[in-house]
Protein: Putative hydrolase of HD superfamily
Organism: Pseudoroseicyclus aestuarii
Amino acid sequence: MAEADRLKSVLRGTTLHDASRRENSAEHSWHVALHALVLAEHAARPVDAGRVVTMLLLHDLVEIDAGDNPIHGVSDPAKQEAEEKAAADRIFALLPPDQSRHLRALWDEFEAAETDDAIFAKSIDRVQPVLSNLATGGGSWPEYRVTRDQLETRVGAKVSRGAPAIWDGIKARIDAWFAGRGA
Amino acid sequence: MAEADRLKSVLRGTTLHDASRRENSAEHSWHVALHALVLAEHAARPVDAGRVVTMLLLHDLVEIDAGDNPIHGVSDPAKQEAEEKAAADRIFALLPPDQSRHLRALWDEFEAAETDDAIFAKSIDRVQPVLSNLATGGGSWPEYRVTRDQLETRVGAKVSRGAPAIWDGIKARIDAWFAGRGA
């Protein structure tokens, strides 16, 4: 638990809704867990909200070692994956063996994004920063020169897979934002 | 979910473990939820960890309106309770009626601290700041002039009620801290 405290100092690309500062990965994890609780009924297929919440509470712990890689930034996916796996090896091993195995298995399930619970959890993890960006007039999108197509490919496709109704609800707001920029 | 974002700007009395800054109530909520997941096996009586985690994700939302009242600070309990109830009325009403009723009921259950799940959730909410204070050489205890007796009454009694084994584990570290100050 002391080690987990360090996630509060890992900063993300997005800001708070009032744009006062960048968000950290610990408060992001809380916020996505809350989203999952409230939005679980909109999952593409029935999910176990408790398992989804647990996955989301854990999903970014690896960033204590591997850092946050903004989705619209430039990164090397193979290098990032290797760093995150090494981080998971170290961090989950801090727990007693039975808990380490159980929680590591949930993290692996989240990363693999193959089960209904993991697919929905991944959707929610993508939804929350979009809402932050919309709340702050585009947020980090201009900084990362994000195009409408890129949002559809990197975010929309993943949100739609687990929560199509949520992406439908957000799309109109995204279109309005891009229309407002003449893009 | 946008309203919930504001909890990231409510600052608590305790700091991060590296003492770099004060902790906010959103990241605190994430951290206590994680504590509950890992420590549920040490509850005084069997608990539903999923319900406990949900309570802890929600428990501080009222601070968006009512602010944080440090446990060792001076506050008026009746005034605080009234402010928090008014905050719960406003904030939970932002949700659709069925979710509003369900999540408000969980918050009321947490506040009442009568069920096994709520009693354990309250214990965990008290444990996390003690561990922060121990990690930072006493943290906010000197600032609030906390005595060993006060810690036992305001914190120990509540932690022991829901998780006696956890309090037993922490007590030796607290005693060592006070011994080191000649108190």
User: Anything to note?
Assistant: The domain at 2-180 of chain B is CATH 1.10.3210.10 (Hypothetical protein af1432).
